[in-house]
Design a protein that fits this description.
By secondary structure, this protein is α/β, with parallel strands linked by helices. The protein has twelve helices and twelve strands. A six-stranded parallel sheet has the order 2-1-3-4-5-6, sandwiched between helices. The two termini are 23 Å apart.
Length: 352
Amino acid sequence: MNILYHLTSPSPPIPGTDAVFQEIEALRRRFGGECLQLFPLRRPSRIFPKKLYGLHQHRALRRVEPSVDLHHLYYATLYPFPWLRALRKPLIYSAVTGVGAHIECGRADSSGKAAGRDWLKTVHTIVSCNPRDEAALRALRPARYRIIRPGIAVERFSPVPLPLRDELVLLVGSAPWIRRQFQTKGIDLLLDVAGSLPLRLVFLWRGLLRDELGRHIARRGLARRVEIINEATDVNRVLARVHATVVLAETESQVKAYPHSLMESLSAGKPALVSGCIPMADYVAETQCGEVVPRLTPDDLRAAIQRLMDHYGERQAKALARCRADFALAPMLEAYGEVYAQAVKPSGWRAS
């Protein structure tokens, strides 16, 4: 099967440290295919217009389109990228943070008429890993959507229980891409509360804004209580020496609905600390494998950390009992295999 994967974010400076790229590589190993980079810059940027993504690859896309069986696009939310209307082979669209409440629509077509959601006709199947999207997806594509929980190679992570004694050691996942995310991903908040709690932080960084992080730490006098890992590393070894992993966000659109760092942590038997706006919080609450931070405030974060410390043994036991099976890679690959097979089946479907 010849699949063309559409990439809409720059490659991470440290290879293997981005969850979307990891997932695409897992799919390529199983199903084959090539990648086309449609993000035009080498570094992330909030100000570059989404409508210009892929303009530099217009000729390349036209050249390879006849030889592919289907397209698979990964992006945070649903968005009417202009190049989608040029596709003639089936398109699978994975919304990695989820569809959410605000579905972006086209502004207008060449005649000046509002495009609305007509662009969705170019999509064969919408895939979300966010069960909260069920109602929205049912309304958008009643017969053409799937909720697929992401999976990872859980065999790479060995449960190594670490007793909780005098202090809690937290691995910090989902590092910022841009400076603003020090606030919106709760990095500054974590550093602020660390000064008043028996807490040590291990930042798993990915090559961007390392000096900026150092300044944020130095301003708070926390150098002795913070470790920064800013290189390719064996995450399993890092998890062996922490108690839990934390991922925070102001809104659900800022991180993957199921962050890989949390799935890896739980697969190693280490509880999760997660913002309530992130869809994976529902799983954490249901399975009691960690604690949910309702809002990104100092009081809510301190309270969640204290609950995790008070009930650490129970949360650790829940993670060890269930999470490896829930996040295995095979079910995700099987589900995508079904989506791909349906998309290429001779059925008369064509983009309109």
